[in-house]
Specification:
It contains five helices and nine strands; from the N terminus they run E-H-E-E-E-H-E-E-H-E-E-H-H-E. With 250 residues, it is of the alpha+beta class. It has a single domain, classed as Alpha-Beta Plaits, CATH 3.30.70.100. Helix 3 packs antiparallel against helix 5. The chain is globular. About 12% of the residues have low confidence.
């Protein structure tokens, strides 16, 4: 990260992650020392006093080229998305965007340092950043889906249960995705100091809110429904939260 080259760089230690069953290898991006799962992802919520589309242009053409090295990548910019008022989602405010950046090993900044750099830009009033490691990526650092209804769902699991939760998820996606025409683009594990639980953030694309709604009564694909019920039993009660968003296309 360029803004840290002239000062002391402090890095997060990357936590070891278990690899799911080999039978899922064809549905999972390979974990290698050079691969995309070897990246840490910053997830920043940025508040702005300017129009969000103006901020997006500034990020794309000014801010990110100024602070990122060639191997450090923009993963996604998230925007508020239209949905019914009674939809059970948290949401980005009209003056907020989400920013995800992918950092290879050895380049990961402190969240607070990234907050300071982004907050110093004109029109930015607040930045909150958290760090995540990739557990699963559909197509590496490329998002294979277009504009739509993206659900960012965070859930807490105990350390003893998280591997089973990941396995059940990936097994379910094999039939769930083609049954409903949606796509899980990534599963991320938050880098937490608290060793008593794991926070997973699953980002899933649906073509629309109606497409998401169609999956709620899963009688079309009993195999995935069974696995999702089993996963639900592992979830720490009351921990789930979901944010709906769309993304800026490249």
């Amino acid at each position: 990260m360029r803004f840290l080259k002239a000062s002391v760089r402090v890095f997060y230690c990357v936590l070891a992650l278990g690899i799911c069953s080999a039978s899922l290898a064809q549905a999972q991006t390979a974990l290698t020392s050079e691969g995309p799962l070897n990246h840490t992802f910053s997830y920043s919520i940025i508040d702005t006093s300017m129009a969000t589309d103006v901020l997006v242009v500034a990020l794309q053409h000014d801010v990110l080229p100024d602070i990122l090295e060639p191997e450090e990548k923009l993963f996604a910019i998230w925007l508020p998305v239209e949905k019914p008022d009674n939809a059970l989602f948290a949401e980005l405010a009209t003056n907020q965007i989400g920013l995800m950046l992918a950092w290879p090993d050895g380049t990961v900044p402190e969240a607070a340092a990234l907050d300071r750099v982004l907050a110093a830009r004109s029109g930015v009033t607040k930045v909150v950043t958290r760090m995540f490691e990739a557990v699963y990526l559909a197509e590496g650092l490329d998002i294979p889906t277009e504009s739509g209804f993206y659900v960012h769902r965070e859930e807490h699991y105990g350390l003893a249960d998280v591997d089973a939760a990941v396995r059940l998820s990936q097994e379910a996606w094999v039939t769930w995705e083609p049954a409903f025409g949606m796509k899980v683009i990534g599963l991320f594990r938050e880098v937490l100091a608290d060793a008593d639980l794991v926070n997973l953030n699953r980002i899933t694309w649906y073509p629309s809110y109606e497409g998401w709604l169609e999956t709620r009564n899963n009688t079309r694909d009993p195999e995935s429904a069974r696995r999702f019920r089993d996963r639900q039993q592992l979830l720490i009660e009351g921990s789930g939260i979901a944010i709906a968003a769309d993304r800026v296309l490249p």
